[in-house]
Amino acid sequence: VLPALDVCLSCGAWLEDPENPERAFFNRASAGLFCTACRRSDSWEMSLKSRAIAAEMLKTPVGQVSGAWSKETAADLRHFLVQRMEEAIERRLITAPVLEAS
Question: In this model, does residue 11 exceed pLDDT 90?
Answer without folding.
Answer: yes
